[in-house]
Amino acid sequence: MQRNRSVHQRKEVKGIPSVEYPSVMSSPARKRAKKQADGDEVEFFKGISKVPYKPDAGPSDVLCYKHYNPAEVIHGKTMADWLRFSVCYWHTFRGVGLDPFGGPTITRHWDDGSESIENAKRRLRAAFEFLSKLGVKYWTFHDRDLAPEGADLEETNRNLDEITDLAKELMEKHGIKLLWNTCNLFAHPRFMNGAATNPDAHVVAYAAAQVKKGLEIGKKLGAENFVFWGGREGFQSLLNTDVLAELTHAANFFKMAVDYKEKIGFQGQLLIEPKPKEPTRHQYDYDAMTVVGFLKHFGLSDHFKINVEPNHTMLAGHSYEHDVVMASKFGMLGSVDSNTGSPDLGWDTDQFPMDVKNATLVMKAVIEQDGIAPGGLNFDAKVRRESTCLEDMFIAHIGAMDTFARGLRAAVKLIEGGVMKMMIADRYSSFKNGIGAKIAKGNATFEECEEYIKKAGEPKQISGQQEKYECVLNHYV
What we know:
Layout: E1 8-13, E2 16-22, H1 27-35, E3 73-74, E4 77-78, H2 79-83, E5 85-88, H3 89-94, H4 117-134, E6 138-142, H5 143-146, H6 153-174, E7 177-182, H7 201-220, E8 225-229, E9 234-235, H8 243-264, E10 269-273, E11 282-283, H9 288-297, E12 304-308, H10 310-315, H11 322-329, E13 333-337, H12 356-368, E14 377-379, H13 390-417, H14 419-427, H15 434-441, H16 446-456, H17 466-476
Parallel strand pairs: 5-6, 5-14, 6-7, 7-8, 8-10, 10-12, 12-13, 13-14
Antiparallel strand pairs: 1-2, 3-4, 9-11
């Protein structure tokens, strides 16, 4: 990866550069950014104060929370504890508005476009001012978002050490915690054929060395989780792929991560984030149930949970809440990358979630498992390419946080009302006694079922009443 981007920006992939485009930052803008002091006295978001809670605010008042009241107790926990909001570093502070058809549109006055340590520190200070003014207590990052990649692994690690020293200082100052960190094992050309599943053992070893450092950084910063997103852990063609070998190598890679986590005493939860495709044609961790099957098969299910990103769920052809519910029902839901996509487009658009009904269904699952800690709701989302002012960064997060606050309230009413729960219980009531109870307990036989049918005859047709359930949900949303 190119060390210096003072002249060029590259196409972002999860906020990491890849394809070169001319920078939209002018020379005067670079000079202004470089003149900014590195001290904490610099205010990066002038004119924007700490976001207040104003439940009576009007429709055009968008720099306040109308529904999210972090200290409010609802259903036995504070809103902050139920929602555990987090801001992602890559989209929010490394995104520059690129798409496949055009160059960057977004500039930030503190960022001179270079890959220098000084610029990385400025960017980090701006991020913590943003987090503090937003009132969010968690953040997330990839290793390569935070610090520039060096000429070799040793220099890269030194860069990461220096920047995370500052991150630790800023976290302590602002009272902000690290929800999770992860390693970028997909952007650099060395990973073009994958990381843990690469056909070249040299590359697999490099990825392992990078994750080793990532776990050490996670421990250093008190990360509550560590995420594996296998953006290139898959294939473009089966013709040149040994699928079983690659999956076995991936499992062994995860076992090395478990061993090292325990060796260094890292207390964070390990998470795998599913995605069906993009950038590979097929990604091995296709969806939540694929990951559950993989972990069970390779004896890893006691060591990992799932970080669900609903945009990825939708790319797999499922409904928004599908993977959240499926992972939760199997005791595997660890965290949620709260975003959404545009199904009509068919790719990973990483939009801010603004649909209250979707948020309600996610929060229903979270409440039913009594919370999502040590995970959270991380906004793996980016402002649109056309949303270029600093206010847009705040408005997007505030809107998404209010959406999930409304979803939480609606889900609590739905659960406490008990109507849908009773409807579902009635629908499955035939499994409470008789042959149904034996089937539910797993001790019925085919012979017993046959005898039952001979006596009971043809089953009656019973309506599923989907529309009634949808009306009940709408009553609360």
